Amino acid sequence: MSTILTDNYNRFHDYLRISLTDNCNLRCFYCMPEESYEFTPASRLMQADELFSIAKLFVDLGVKKIRLTGGEPLVRKDAGAIIRQLATLPVELTLTTNGTRIAQFLPLLKESGVKSLNISLDTLKPERFSVITRRDQFQVVYDSIHQLMEQNFHVKVNVVVMKGMNEDELLDFVVWTKSSPVHVRFIEFMPFSGNRWTSNKVLTWQEILEIVGNEYPIVPIAGAAHDTAKKYHIPGHAGSFAIISTMSNNFCSTCNRIRLTADGKLKNCLFSSSETDLLTPFRKGMDIKPLIEKNIRSKKKELGGQFTQDFEKIEATELTNRSMITIGG
After folding, report:
1. Is 297 left (phi over 0), alpha (psi -120 to 50) or beta?
2. Has residue 92 been placed in a domain?
3. Does residue 2 sit within a domain?
């Protein structure tokens, strides 16, 4: 196997997350800085054929899993064509989506062999959903999740937990796992450009476990080699819950993920301050393999080299990064 995707800490990267667009039909404040956000012009995005060719190159270099993200990937006009193309590659293909367009894409997802999806949903209260997303789409998302489960998709629901916003709903989400085979993932609030992050809004892994553990017996589930989530099961529940503890207990030592932004920039970490432009040299007919190799080798030991697990000391305004929506989830 090629070692070109191995960094200086001997981490091999075989999981590529590709953002299709920085556009979205929701306006979650922790992801998109402003309602009047200006999206990247289509000409500066990877076109469908470019995206496929670059993805194929990564597969040739050892990538085994591709996740499509955004923004909202399914708002891109040629999303269906891109999914069909990528489905021809020998990879596990999956998506992270806000769930608003699942109904119209469901036949295509089944046809393309997609078996698992991550759906972003931070509240089970319709009125709170409208506040967080600035859109009235709760029922559409909730119904889509159940439709996916009825069609035997593996559904993970991503819940960004913030003190003062939705920590009072942790147990409501856990109750949901009792009768439904839904896999809820509580995500610690992370700092990105423009998302008004402060350390006192972070509800940590241990705090979440304490809240749930006070009501239910919790059984840990053995994880896989590169898991980002710590998984748990409650006896008698059809589903499960997990915690992504990026801020309080990171998983950088086993990270196998790399990110390609919608405008063709390679980020070797969600928090990396630097990125490598692949699209411009690709359009010039250059060999981009050396650029990929150099980018992976430059990956920092943890958290993009920008902060440590002592997150209470982070000055968010001093971090150098994009907004979440321009990185891709």
Report:
1. alpha
2. yes
3. no
Q: Tell the burial category of 159 from Cβ atoms under 10 Å away from its Cβ (0-12, 13-18, 19+).
A: buried
* Farthest-apart Cα atoms in the chain, separation: 59
Neighbours of 265 (CB within 10 A): 21
Task: Specify whether the CB–CB gap between 7 and 255 falls below 8 A.
Answer: no
**Residues spanned by the domain of 168:** 15-327
We report the CATH number of the domain holding residue 194 as 3.20.20.70
Q: Give the tens place of pLDDT for each residue, 294-307.
A: 999 999 998 766 66
State which H helix or E strand residue 86 sits in.
Answer: helix 79-86
State the pTM of this model.
0.91
Contact of 161 with 187, CB cutoff 8 Å:
yes
| Sign of the alpha-carbon dihedral angle for 40, 303, 195, 189 | positive
Is the pLDDT at 2 greater than 50? The verdict is no
